[in-house]
TrEMBL record:
<feature type="transmembrane region" description="Helical">
    <location>
        <begin position="221"/>
        <end position="244"/>
    </location>
</feature>
<feature type="transmembrane region" description="Helical">
    <location>
        <begin position="166"/>
        <end position="184"/>
    </location>
</feature>
<keyword id="KW-1003">Cell membrane</keyword>
<dbReference type="GO" id="GO:0005886">
    <property type="term" value="C:plasma membrane"/>
</dbReference>
<feature type="transmembrane region" description="Helical">
    <location>
        <begin position="142"/>
        <end position="160"/>
    </location>
</feature>
<feature type="domain" description="G-protein coupled receptors family 1 profile">
    <location>
        <begin position="38"/>
        <end position="269"/>
    </location>
</feature>
<keyword id="KW-0807">Transducer</keyword>
<feature type="transmembrane region" description="Helical">
    <location>
        <begin position="59"/>
        <end position="84"/>
    </location>
</feature>
<dbReference type="InterPro" id="IPR017452">
    <property type="entry name" value="GPCR_Rhodpsn_7TM"/>
</dbReference>
<keyword id="KW-0675">Receptor</keyword>
<comment type="similarity">
    <text>Belongs to the G-protein coupled receptor 1 family.</text>
</comment>
<keyword id="KW-1133">Transmembrane helix</keyword>
<feature type="transmembrane region" description="Helical">
    <location>
        <begin position="250"/>
        <end position="271"/>
    </location>
</feature>
<keyword id="KW-0297">G-protein coupled receptor</keyword>
<dbReference type="GO" id="GO:0004930">
    <property type="term" value="F:G protein-coupled receptor activity"/>
</dbReference>
<dbReference type="Pfam" id="PF00001">
    <property type="entry name" value="7tm_1"/>
</dbReference>
<keyword id="KW-0472">Membrane</keyword>
Length: 294
């Protein structure tokens, strides 16, 4: 299999320059720690705060789990892979490449599916109005998350079936197009509501908390923008590799940028979502070490 989660190996072992390898190892190690700590805090905050057990937060926590997986598994193994290329250890390179490839594909695919589900959730909240809470329930969101992870694990089929190598990248491309389409529709609808807010103030407020909704949409802009910044380089590198020989240096650089996304997502959530910040502070206050200080 040859996809953007797989280190380049054109039948020969390509060694990385020591300074570059150490720099990339340091960046990935730091990003790994940040991703693990912040995504763990999101998950812990969700578990301890019953008011956050809503469909929207369930999807955010699902994304936090995939980002935690990247920080706890993919990036540490990727550091081993970088070390192997620096020291020219083919056996260690092959083992770490296999783990990076399989776990990376499952988690990346799950992330794309989850982000798409979050976008769909925001689209439904805008269009269903009062029926949103009736139709989009916690149980249905949990079912959607389970389905997302089953689909994510099915990405491993690309290891054994060549047709899957075509199907799954096509699905990812379709998800990207779907996200862009829905975000455009959401933006237009929000602009329309904002333009008529004075004339329809009571009707809009009765069906939708427009200021709060606009804030969640803006958060989605940050998430989607960060996703694009982190993923476009590695996808571009893959496309270019069809034309010219794949460069190990280019792949390791772009793959590192892609993995950093898992550390940036929780930063955006804690920055943009006040309820999550407040819940985290409340969680800290209930910790024994904090209670003893008071």
């Amino acid at each position: 299999m040859n996809n953007f989660t797989e280190p380049p190996s054109n039948g020969s072992f390509e060694r990385l320059e020591k300074g570059l390898a150490i720099s990339l190892i340091s960046i990935n190690a730091l990003s790994s720690v940040v991703a693990c700590v912040l995504n763990f805090l999101i998950i812990a905050t969700f578990i301890k705060t019953s008011s956050m057990w809503t469909p929207s937060y369930i999807l955010i926590v699902s994304l936090a789990f995939s980002d935690l997986g990247v920080g706890a598994l993919v990036q540490p193994v990727f550091c081993v892979n970088l070390f192997a290329t620096m020291k020219a250890c083919p056996s260690l390179f092959d083992m770490s490449s296999d783990i990076t490839q399989k776990s990376g594909w499952v988690l990346v695919f799950s992330s794309f599916l989850t982000i798409t589900a979050i976008t769909i959730d925001r689209f439904l909240a805008l269009n269903l109005h009062l029926r949103y809470q009736e139709l989009v329930t916690t149980q249905r969101s949990l079912t959607a998350v389970i389905f997302i992870w089953i689909l994510g694990l099915s990405g491993l089929l690309t290891q054994w079936f060549h047709i899957a190598e075509i199907i799954y990248p096509s699905v990812v491309a379709t998800l990207v197009i779907l996200n862009i389409t829905l975000m455009v529709k959401i933006s237009r609808a929000v602009s329309k509501h904002s333009a008529t807010i004075h004339a329809q103030e009571q009707a809009v407020q009765g069906s939708l908390d427009l200021p709060g909704y606009k804030k969640t949409v803006n958060t989605m802009y940050y998430i989607m923008g960060t996703l694009a910044v982190c993923y476009v380089p590695v996808v571009s590198e893959k496309i270019i590799s069809f034309v010219i020989k794949r460069s190990a240096i280019a792949w390791y650089l772009t793959y590192t940028i892609m993995l950093i996304n898992s550390a940036l997502n929780p930063v955006i959530y804690f920055w943009r979502i006040q309820d999550m910040r407040n819940a985290l502070l409340q969680l800290f206050r209930t910790m024994p070490c904090c209670q003893q200080q008071h």
